């Protein structure tokens, strides 16, 4: 499938919003992603759709700090560029209310879901941008751990986790150490 770039906008130090046209007939569920062709050799990178399915366009939220093929491709785009993609893909769908834990760009599917409350882990203040929602922002793991420990009924929540592989693995271990069981956890790893 193809889409055209409407605009590319810098949101903070490493975060960019890429807005694409939405091909007619394309329907997605909040939490799904598309796979972009980022190199003529056929290399692909996945990006979650970050606006609600009812939107007339497709928004992607890209963290370009890895600066690999995907990041460089996104930064090379300009209004009118044609983007080759496959999708929508994925099964990271919200099936219940709960607690939403995002590492960095892992907030993207939660924005599409209009989910809340979101606990958002970022490395630096320079990475923050206005999400249109109201996430609780954490810069250190210690503060996040203290916050999670303060939730009395954590065992009763469905917990949705999204971010890099180390983030999801680290948070899974932490949550299990706090008494959460695996059936409460729903995770998407940005590998
Ligand atoms: C289902 C799915 C959905 C995704 N959705 C998004 C999204 O909405 N927004 C988004 O920005 N990314 C998303 N990703 C990740 C994205 O596909 C790329 O992998 C990522 O942006 C890095 O691409 P790159 O080509 O620039 O770097 P790569 O060439 O893949 O990596 C360059 C270097 O950076 C490291 N690296 C890669 N990713 C990270 C990271 N997150 N943190 C730290 N180091 C890293 C790699 O190990 C490597 O050493 C998603 C991934 C998956 C699987």
From TrEMBL:
Instruction: Output the superkingdom of the source species.
Output: Bacteria
Give start and end of each FAD-binding FR-type domain.
1-95
Which is an annotated GO molecular function term of this record?
oxidoreductase activity
PANTHER family per the UniProt record, alphabetical: NADH OXIDOREDUCTASE HCR (PTHR47354), PROTEIN RFBI (PTHR47354:SF5)
Protein's name according to its UniProt entry: FAD-binding FR-type domain-containing protein
Q: What is the lineage of its organism?
A: Bacteria, Candidatus Amesiibacteriota
């Amino acid at each position: 499938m193809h889409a055209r770039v409407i605009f590319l906008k810098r949101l903070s130090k490493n975060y960019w919003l890429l807005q694409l046209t939405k091909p007619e007939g394309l329907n997605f569920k909040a939490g799904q992603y598309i796979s972009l062709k980022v190199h003529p050799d056929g290399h692909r990178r996945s990006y979650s759709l970050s606006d609600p399915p009812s939107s007339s366009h497709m928004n992607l939220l890209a963290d370009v700090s890895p600066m690999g093929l995907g990041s460089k491709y996104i930064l090379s785009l300009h209004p009118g560029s044609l983007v080759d993609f496959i999708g929508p893909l994925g099964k990271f769908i919200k099936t219940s209310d709960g607690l939403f834990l995002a590492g960095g760009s892992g907030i993207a599917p939660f924005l599409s879901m209009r989910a809340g409350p979101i606990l958002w882990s970022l490395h630096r203040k320079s990475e923050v941008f206005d999400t249109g929602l109201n996430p609780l922002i954490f810069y250190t793991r210690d503060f996040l751990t203290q916050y999670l420990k303060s939730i009395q009924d954590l065992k009763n929540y469905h917990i949705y986790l999204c971010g890099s592989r180390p983030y999801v693995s680290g948070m899974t271990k932490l949550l299990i150490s706090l008494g959460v069981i695996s059936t409460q956890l729903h995770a998407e790893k940005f590998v």
